[in-house]
Amino acid sequence: MKIGVPVVCLALIGSMLVVAGTRSAAVASPAGDAALAKWTTAWSAVRSYTVTMTAHEVKGNDVQDRVYNLYYLAPSHVRMDIVGGAGKGSQAVWSGGDTVDGHQGGFLRFIHLHLKLTNSLAVSMRGVTIAQATFGGVLDMIKSLKMSSTDATTVGNTTTFTAIVADPTTDGGITKDVVFLASNGLPTAYDQYEGDVNVNHMIYSDTKVNVQLPDSTWNI
Fold it and tell me: In the chain, which stretches have pLDDT less than 50?
């Protein structure tokens, strides 16, 4: 992922122009714009990646804890395996479009399913689809929000990007999105809040970028 400094600078400037254009109505800080631009630039250099995702979701009185292994190949191949928690053993593959293929865990693993992307069997408890689960999917969601303000702070190697949602009805009731970015510009964690309650806590670990993924990855 090493890119020459002149290329990085040009890409960063271009990304900031795009970001500024998509959020003209928000009260944006230079630090917030720079963080989002850095993430945009980093994502544009990703051809493939694998990551472990540890998720804690809350919806009303319900709680869902899961651990996923995610595999991504540009532009739109995604595989997710639930390796811990609710639904352990389930697998899904998305190759673009509005459908997903997969199977549930346990004794149902031999029954293969072809479902709408938003089918209740194919999404998390808060309705996150496999297409929205990638770093790029989260980035696109952040950019599409109606935000009242954004900001970012950097401590050590971690930049914390915060977006206050102007209209929570456009973000599933979420009032604040917080993304933690590593020095390479890609997320290490992601939080969503309803008021003061963290309802979606995601930790990304063991991230490997631009790895070789065999064709068998997409066979489940």
Answer: 1-25
